[in-house]
Each structure stands twice: as C-alpha cells, then as structure tokens.
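Per your request, structure below.
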C-alpha cells in the first residue's frame, strides 16, 4: 500500500472510504470485509500487553536532572507517590485512554506491515489525533486529520466543574470529602485487639448483607464465612473499612449506626472503624501540604520530564496519558491520594502490633501506601486476597518483570503473599510473572455456594425459558446491554421470561427507555436466582458472569466496542461473545437449543470447610499464636 492512503475510522457511522483501505478504530465486527483495531489487539494480545507494561516501567524510570521520576516523587522514606498515580495504577476503569494506548500499539504494528504513504484519521478526538500523528511521524508517514467535530453536551454543573483550574477542583473535592466524612470520627477506636490471637482486615464497606448488618451481625459477601470461622476458633478481628456510598448505604449516619452495633458485640463481630475515622486537623493540613509540594515541584520539573519522555520507546503514547498524569499530580485525584497517605499513616501507625493482616487486593493506588506504612510500623505478615476474578486485561494486577523484581530504592511495595481463589487465577498470575511460591491457594469465599446452586438445577420449573440480564457497575454499560436486548423483535422477546439484576452500587433503571422489553427487576442474591434461569446475558465487567458460568449456565457476554474484552470469561471454552442484535439473537437460539450439560467447576476452590484458609492461618494447630509467629519469622 505504498502509494495508497490508509484511513483510520473513528466514527459511529459507517465508513465512507473504501473497505480495503479502511481500518475501524472501534468495534469487534466479524464481517469478512471489515478490519478493526480491537480485533487485531485481541489476536496479538500477549505481545501488545507486554509492550504497554514495558512503556509504563520506562516512564517511572525516566532519568532527568540526576534522578528517576520515581525518586523525584518520593514522599516518605522508600515510598514514591509514583505508585499512586493513574499511569502506574493502570486501571482501564479509571483511565479509559489505556484502551487507546493498546489500540495505538496495535496500529503501530499494522503500519509496519502495510507501509502506507499517507495515514488519514477521521475523528473528533484531539488527543488521539496528536498521538497518531506522532506515531506516523516516527515512521516517516504523512498524516492527515479529517476532523469531525463532536457535539458538546449541554452546560451543566458537572461540565462547569470540569472546566475549572485543576487546583480549584482539587480544593472543592477536598472540602466536600472532609465535610461529608467528618462524622465518621465518632467511630474511631482507641483500643484494638492485639497480640498473636488477633487478625487485621482492610476492607470496603460495601457488598454487605443488609438484614444481617441491621441486626448487628457483620456479614460481608467479600469475606463470606471467613470471619465467623475465625471467631469460632477464638480469634479476635480488627476491621478498617473504606466507606463507600451506595443505594444500600446512602449516608454516613447509617454506616455509623451499623458499626456501633458491631462494636457492642466485638468478641463475636470484631472491632470496626472507617479509614476516614482518622480525619483530624493535622491529617488534613499534612495532606494539603503534600499535595501542594508535589504539584509545585512537578510544575518546575515538567519541561525536563517532557524532554526525557521523547527519548523512550513508544513515546507517542504520552498525549493519551497526559490528562491522567495531570489529574494524578495536580488534580482531585492527587489530593485524594495525599489524604489516603496521611489517613493510612495515622491509622496503621496508631494500631497495636498486628501479627497478620489481610486486605482485598484489587491493584488500587491506596494499597501501595497501605503496604508501605504496614511495613514501616513493624506489623507482621501481610496477605493480599484476590476476592473476585482477575481478567486478562485487568492491568492493575500486572507489571513489567523489571518492576515486579526490583529491589531498588522506592521500589513498588508488594505484600508478602497473594491469596488466589482457584486454578484459573493461579494460572493467570503465574503467566503474568508472579513467583509461584508467593501465591497461596485459598477457597473462593464469595463463591462457596456454587455447589449448592448446582444441586438445585433439577428443580427448575418447565415452561417459558428464562433469561437473566446482569447489570454493570458502570451505568452506561448497563444501558448499552438493555438497548441491545431492546433491539430484538418484540415477538422474539415474548418467547422468554426476562429478569434483570442491577449491580448493588447502581441506582434502579428507567424501564421506559426500553419499550420492547417486559422484564422483572430482581435484587435477590445470585445464588437464589441462578437455579431458576436458563441463560445469562452479561456485560464485560461483572464478576457475576463467571459465577453463572461456574455453576454450568450458558453465558452470553456483550462486548463494548470502545473497551477491552475484559470479561473474566475471556479465553474460557464455551464462552460466547456478541456485539450486535443479530449475534445476540443467534446466540440465544443456539445455546437454548443445546441440551443442558452441567460443567465441572474448575475455576474456583469452594470447599465449605475452608481447609486452605485454615492451613494458611494456622487454625489446624493447637497453638495458634506460636504458628503465626513462626510463619512471620
């Protein structure tokens, strides 16, 4: 194609350029004459993912003015604020541009193969145009931009806030957070369980069983039966929670009420507090000081940093990540993370020595600060628990090998061990470069009910087939799922009883938006719903998809044309992925015409006796304290 123009089409409507010289920036279309970047990305995922992780490593290792970027951002001895920035976190949920970065790396490979004379971009995306221009320029390819103006939304309070200077937005965010959470200091505990008979938990105040908690019995679906098992063995538990608002937890008043009830029965329910319970004038002032120190310092270093970026491979990705970087250093996220730093330092520093600690490992930025201060304060063994699923594109769990194995100053903080809940997760983590000996097998305590659910399938009622649609925690993705289902013929939809289960942190949906759909919204626990349905329709982001798949139900997953195939079912034999109404209709018909054959659960370990957890925590030993001490030493 040396004498031809290659067009990159980044618009919702069909391309007007010739199909043979056009590549779609979005979509997972399966037509023979359509080429898409996401399809190429999926076919070459291993090398492209490794390339992006390498770029992020090189970014942290940028050397200018005699120091690495990581060292310029040191905020405590042996801890760098770099590990709390969005580029280092690598969560596509917080940084949607990561998908653009991977797509651009895929385009880079295709340009090397096709070698066009001119590269034409049809798009209204300024940052994308800048990045692709730099990529083409590095290869001596002429670049043209057919700029299509995207319609801007109506001015509202959110848009107005977004246009304010980053420092102003940061201070507004900070004040709102402080004022809305200040009441939580009422449940700051001064006395905690200590010694070898206590275990520390860092958790989220979400996914709780409302009825149990209202009655003063702490039950978290993320920790399942583990706390009650530990209570029965005579252990004492300490909990710090991130307070998260949700439809079930609308305000701090209700959170304080529940925690107060738990603490009255601490011997059987544990001692509980919130991270924000450590708010104080000193913590707030220190967080503000850290924020302005980091922000002002990086303003003076910006020019030198930009020059250094131009020297590393794949530097054309930087225009796509620059906004995330600015938010991480100068914006609301920066001040949120400096507040996390000071709150965690205050909380963990005031705790009595803990022999063992458990936290929910999700690759979030606060986890790095927690690990650092846990070690700094001389606490014992620390275990990160992967409580749900780890998908291939959950880059927040993965790092370049040089990052994982580094022992340099300000190296990435890591837990002593990572607890994995099944064969699938162990394989993913080992393939990503984690040392097998650092991984510990434990039961998937969120999914212990899987065997019980499978035993109920023979009780399923006859009649119309039942379809369950699972909502996403991102409201727009849920809307896309229901809109896709709504596009099917009404006569086809009437053949099925359709049920919808929304994500617990999302508000109820507006049924009027989907006139073709007659469905019942249900909010029961999934283990109560699954035995009564025949097929499941899911989005890419919900762990409920793998739960449905593990109990043996056919699962159809809707791909998001502007995102990774981040489904936990990616690569699983028998998983079905669709992106159009026709593909959805065909998949439903084909799967329901197949005879039901219950699959064996090879995904999770689900022994209800928790033998792996008991072995990890030494509960099968007569002298628990001695075992924990020996393990730590």
């Amino acid at each position: 194609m040396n004498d031809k123009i290659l067009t990159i089409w980044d618009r919702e409507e069909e391309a007007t350029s010739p199909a043979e010289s056009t590549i779609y920036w979005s979509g997972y279309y399966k037509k023979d004459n359509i080429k898409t970047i996401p399809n190429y990305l999926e076919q070459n995922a291993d090398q492209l993912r490794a390339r992006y992780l390498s770029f992020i490593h090189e970014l942290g290792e940028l050397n200018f003015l005699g120091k690495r970027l990581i060292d310029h951002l040191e905020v405590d001895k042996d801890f760098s604020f770099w590990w709390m920035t969005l580029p280092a976190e690598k969560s596509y949920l917080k940084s949607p541009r990561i998908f653009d970065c991977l797509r651009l790396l895929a385009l880079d490979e295709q340009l090397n193969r096709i070698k066009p004379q001119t590269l034409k971009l049809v798009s209204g995306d300024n940052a994308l145009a800048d990045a692709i221009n730099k990529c083409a320029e590095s290869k001596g390819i002429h670049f043209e931009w057919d700029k299509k103006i995207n319609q801007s939304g109506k001015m509202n309070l959110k848009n107005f806030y977004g246009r304010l200077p980053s420092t102003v937005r940061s201070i507004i965010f900070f004040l709102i957070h402080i004022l809305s959470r200040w009441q939580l200091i009422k449940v700051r505990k001064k006395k905690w369980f200590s010694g070898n008979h206590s275990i520390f938990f860092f958790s989220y105040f979400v996914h709780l069983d409302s009825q149990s908690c209202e009655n003063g019995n702490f039950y978290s679906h993320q920790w399942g039966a583990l706390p009650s098992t530990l209570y029965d063995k005579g252990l004492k538990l300490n909990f710090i929670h991130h307070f998260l608002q949700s439809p079930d937890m609308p305000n701090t008043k209700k959170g304080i009420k529940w925690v107060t009830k738990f603490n009255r029965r601490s011997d059987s329910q544990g001692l509980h507090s919130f991270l924000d319970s450590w708010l104080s004038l000193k913590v707030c002032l220190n967080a503000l000081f850290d924020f302005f120190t980091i922000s002002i310092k990086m303003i003076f270093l910006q020019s030198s940093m930009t020059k250094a970026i131009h020297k590393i491979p794949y530097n054309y990705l930087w225009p796509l990540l620059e906004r995330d970087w600015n938010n991480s250093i100068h914006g609301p996220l920066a001040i949120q993370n400096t507040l996390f730093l000071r709150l965690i330092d205050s909380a963990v520093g005031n705790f009595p020595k803990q022999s063992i600690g458990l936290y929910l490992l999700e690759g979030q930025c606060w986890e790095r600060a927690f690990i650092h201060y846990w070690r700094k304060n001389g606490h014992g063994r620390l275990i990160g628990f992967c409580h749900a699923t780890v998908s291939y594109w959950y880059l927040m769990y993965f790092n370049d090998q040089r990052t994982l194995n580094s022992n340099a100053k300000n190296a990435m903080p890591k837990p002593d061990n990572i607890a994995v809940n099944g064969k699938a997760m162990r394989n993913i983590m080992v393939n990503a470069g984690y040392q097998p000996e650092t991984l510990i097998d434990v039961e998937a305590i969120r999914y212990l009910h899987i065997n019980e659910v499978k035993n109920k399938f023979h009780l399923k009622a006859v009649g119309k087939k039942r379809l369950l649609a699972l909502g996403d925690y991102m409201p727009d993705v849920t809307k896309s799922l229901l809109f896709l289902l709504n596009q099917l013929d009404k006569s086809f939809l009437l053949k099925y009883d359709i049920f919808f289960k929304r994500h617990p942190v999302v508000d109820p949906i507006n049924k009027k938006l989907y006139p073709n759909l007659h469905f019942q919204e249900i909010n029961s626990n999934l283990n109560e719903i699954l035995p009564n349905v025949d097929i499941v329709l899911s989005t890419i982001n919900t762990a409920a998809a793998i739960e449905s798949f593990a109990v043996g139900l056919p699962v159809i997953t809707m791909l998001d044309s502007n995102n990774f195939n981040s489904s936990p079912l990616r690569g699983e034999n028998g998983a079905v992925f669709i992106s159009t109404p026709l593909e959805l209709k065909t998949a439903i018909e084909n799967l329901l015409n197949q005879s039901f054959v219950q699959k064996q659960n090879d995904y999770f370990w689900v022994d209800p006796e928790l033998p792996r957890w008991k072995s990890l925590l030494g509960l099968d030993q007569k002298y628990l304290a001695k075992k924990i001490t020996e393990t730590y030493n």
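Confidence is low (pLDDT under 50) at residues 622-633.

Regards,
D.
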